[in-house]
Amino acid sequence: MSSLTPEEFWDLYEETLDEKLDHPHIEISIAGNAEIADELLALYLSGKKSAGSGLVKDYELAGDPLPEVDNFWIILDSKNNPRCIVKTIAVEINKFSDISKKIAEAEGEGDLSVEYWKKAHRDFFTPYLNDWGIVDLDDEDVVTEFYEVVFQK
After folding, report:
1. Is residue 1 part of a domain?
2. How many structural domains comprise the chain?
3. Which of 18, 71, 94, 124 would be a feasible disulfide site paired with 88, CB 3.0-4.6 Å?
4. DSSP letters of 34-57?
């Protein structure tokens, strides 16, 4: 795997475009956390994963803006190497208890069921709930970004 910086990786992507993008919003991140980054990355690269979700409360507490259409993410592997670029094509906010089959399927994990989605995300979020002051995860707003992979190397 090459050792390009995220900035060099972005430059390679822009070389494939007819013209440079005007002030794109770019985030650089591993998918999920270090333990599951490569597993989630493989789903992006294979086309099985076209969405990702997070708690609105996490964004608020971190002071981060909520995702918007036309944002770009440079997705890193667990060794922090850039592997693909995804573009946000839609954003939805739903209660955790109201996650739809469409979202579960787009996230591409497990058996693609809502039940699997809820268990996997409950397991992922649970260690942070006390820090976030969350008592009932089912009542929390979840922001889901729908993506398309626009570049991979």
Report:
1. no
2. 1
3. 71
4. TTTHHHHHHHHHHT---EEEEEHH
